[in-house]
Structure formats: structure tokens, C-alpha cells
Write a structure and sequence with these properties.
alpha/beta, 6-stranded parallel β-sheet, 16 helices, single chain, elongated
């Protein structure tokens, strides 16, 4: 390994999440390309810790606090101080050539330390819209101040880039766009659709819509239910909806609404699943009804599985779904428009297949993990050479 190919990533946790899974895939690709990678997590070991280490990444975690009762708060503060000191020492003495922060917590903690340690190249990745800053205006001010000390700031959708440029005044010369990448092969495999459908109580002849999203209000499940009520009699008689995702307590409200509309036999909540690829390949139409997004891997995975999409016009959805080409885009929080799109896409089986094939080709061309890793490597090499973003990821004015 050459000294000038050393990266330290800082992230809040190594539990399973979109950003964490994305970083794991990137690390796997970069290690095979000869990069030395250190990962610093601000929390205790999560479910992905072993996966990072198996990928050849050196992982450090925050120390746990074993104290309870009255002693818990002071020792928690002491633990936090120790973590900050450990991270600062890493920056100061290990001298990684590139320091890259993922998500706000890592940025707020690690960013100032990296500046104090005068690390040669500092990068930050924003992977969501900045709506969260409205709840924490003080931290938002710190983030905006830190931007001026970064050599590059990345977004994963055009909407995120616009946030950074228009709302947070990040110079266009510092802004880069790298889309998420997924491993396409698992979603291209053939599956026994009949058996998979039977296992979740569906028929082979059913028209199946699928929504992969945790049961959180802003994911738009209630909008979908209300949209389905508007067109229930106009949809093909055999329509069904499956929803895969973690329930944070919102499911009971959705079920209550379905019961009021007498649609509880049509919408099925499957909970968290480890067989999302099989479910996607056993469905006909993909959905994402969110009120807000950064860039959704769920859309990429559904399209990689050959599904036409109906999505809301938020975040990175318009970057990958082209209206009337590989799916339909509708306004967020608008059940009436959503209903009409669901009706259009379900009435023409030939167009449904054509849209699915177009989407699948687009994913292969632009959103593979190989393409994504290559862009990260190009970014890092360009930063090492002249501390500037490569033209390939700069966003147009």
C-alpha cells in the first residue's frame, strides 16, 4: 500500500442503514483497488462492524459507558471527551491523506477536529435534504461554518446539491454529485415467483404493487391508501399491495384507515425482510410515495428488478425516474395525482413491461456499484493530485 492512498471515514454508527450500507460497498471496492481505509464510528459496534473488518477496513468505535444511575451522566460526558480526544489523536498522529465525513453527527464532531489537526484533504457527504436543520438551527450554523473549511462537499442527488448551493452557500467549485450505486446481479436473478407469492398469501395472477419503506409518516403510506380508495373500483380486480419495512408504531394507524375503507384484505404489511430482491422480482409495479428523500436505494433496487415505478417528485427520484419513460412522477402529498398514475400504469401491461426494461437498462448504465466506486476513486485521486474535484462529478451551473 502506498502512503498517499490512506482514507479515514467518520460516521455516526455501524448499524444497518442506507448511508452505512453505501459506505460498506464503497470500502469493499476501494480496498480491492489498493486503498488503506480506517473507519471511526461515534457509537458502539453495530451489525455492520464485522462486515467492514472482513472487507479489510480498520474499525474503531466509541467506548461504552457501563455506569448507571446518578453516575451515568458524568461518565457519559467523560466518555464523550475521551472519544473526541481519540479521534483528534488519530487525525493528528496518523495523518490520513483524506478525511471523509458521512452524515451530520460525524461532520459536527469530526469536522472541527480535522481542521484543528490540519488534515490535508477534508471531505463531507450529505445524503439527505437539509430539512433536519430546521429542528436544530444551532447545529445548522456550525455545519454552514464548517463548509468553508472543506475541500469538497458531496451530494447524492441534484436536490441535495441545490440545498447546499442555494441554502447553505457552498461554492459550486466545491460541490460534487456521486449517485448511489447498487450491486445489480442479485436483482437480475430469476426467482420462483409463484412460490414467493404463495408464501405471502398472494396468487400468481395478482397484479402486485410493492412499496419498500419503513412505516414512518413521511414515507407516504397513508397517501397511498387514500389514493387506492379513490380508484379501487377502476383498478384490475386482482390488485394487491405489499409493504416491506420496519414499523416504528405507525402501522396501527394505517391498518385502522384500511379497515375504515374496507381495503385491509388488499394491503399487506410484511415487516422488515431480508428477501427484498425476491419480493421485488415477484412484483409488477414499484412505488415510493415519500414526502422527502435524499436518494432512495429502494427505487434503484426496484428498477434493477425490472419494475416500472410510480414515485413522488422529491429528492433524487426525478434523477432516476423519467416521467412516462420508465415510470410516472407525481407531486408529494397528493393522493389524487398518485391515484391517476397508479391507474395509468396498471391498465397497460405492454407499456408496463417496456418501462421496466428501460429502467433496468438505466440502472445498469449509471447506477451500478462499480460505477460508483470508480467515481469515488477518481475523486480521491484528483484531490490527492491538486485538491480539486474531477470534472466528471461537478454539477452543471
Amino acid at each position: 500500500m502506498t502512503k498517499n492512498k490512506t482514507i479515514t471515514y467518520v460516521i455516526g454508527t455501524t448499524n444497518i442503514g442506507g448511508a452505512e450500507m453505501h459506505l460498506l460497498r464503497i470500502c469493499r471496492g476501494l480496498v480491492t483497488r489498493g486503498w488503506t481505509i480506517n473507519l471511526y464510528s461515534l457509537s458502539e459496534p453495530g451489525k455492520l462492524s464485522d462486515d467492514f473488518e472482513k472487507a479489510g477496513v480498520s474499525v474503531q468505535h466509541a467506548l461504552s459507558v457501563p455506569f448507571t444511575g446518578l453516575m451515568r451522566k458524568p461518565f457519559r460526558l467523560l466518555s464523550m471527551f475521551i472519544q473526541v480526544l481519540r479521534l483528534f489523536c488519530h487525525f493528528l498522529f496518523q495523518r490520513p491523506n483524506i478525511t471523509h465525513f458521512f452524515l451530520p453527527a460525524a461532520y459536527l464532531v469530526g469536522g472541527p477536529l480535522s481542521v484543528l489537526a490540519a488534515n490535508p484533504i477534508r471531505l463531507m457527504s450529505r445524503r439527505s435534504l437539509n430539512i433536519y436543520q430546521q429542528r436544530r438551527p444551532f447545529f445548522a450554523k456550525i455545519e454552514k461554518k464548517l463548509h468553508s473549511y472543506m475541500h469538497g462537499i458531496l451530494g447524492n442527488s441534484k436536490a441535495v446539491i441545490e440545498n447546499l448551493n442555494n441554502d447553505e452557500y457552498v461554492s459550486e467549485s466545491k460541490l460534487g454529485l456521486i449517485y448511489n450505486g447498487i450491486e445489480i446481479e442479485p436483482f437480475a436473478l430469476q426467482v420462483d415467483q409463484k412460490s414467493i407469492r404463495q408464501s405471502i398469501g398472494l396468487k400468481e395472477s395478482d397484479l402486485v404493487f410493492i412499496l419498500v419503506a419503513n412505516l414512518i409518516p413521511y414515507k407516504g403510506h397513508m397517501d397511498l391508501i387514500n389514493a387506492l380508495d379513490l380508484i379501487e373500483k377502476d383498478l384490475p380486480e386482482n390488485w394487491q399491495v405489499i409493504c416491506a419495512g420496519y414499523d416504528n408504531g405507525y402501522r396501527k394507524h394505517l391498518v385502522q384507515r384500511l379497515q375504515e375503507l374496507k381495503l385491509e384484505h388488499k394491503v399487506h404489511f410484511l415487516g422488515q425482510r431480508t428477501d427484498i430482491g425476491d419480493l421485488l422480482k415477484s412484483s409488477d409495479i414499484g412505488l415510493l410515495c415519500s414526502h422527502e428523500e435524499g436518494f432512495s436505494n429502494a427505487v434503484l433496487e426496484a428498477m434493477a428488478s425490472g419494475l416500472p415505478m410510480v414515485v413522488t417528485n422529491v429528492g433524487g427520484n426525478p434523477d432516476v425516474v423519467e416521467n412516462n419513460k420508465n415510470g410516472y412522477i407525481v407531486p408529494a402529498k397528493n393522493p389524487a395525482e398518485l391515484a391517476q398514475a397508479l391507474l395509468r400504469i396498471s391498465k397497460d401491461s405492454n407499456k408496463m413491461k417496456e418501462m421496466g426494461l428501460r429502467g433496468q437498462e438505466l440502472i445498469k448504465e449509471k447506477f451500478s456499484i462499480e460505477t460508483c466506486v470508480a467515481q469515488y476513486e477518481e475523486l480521491y485521486q484528483s484531490m490527492l493530485n491538486n485538491k480539486s474535484l474531477p470534472e466528471s462529478i461537478k454539477t452543471p451551473s
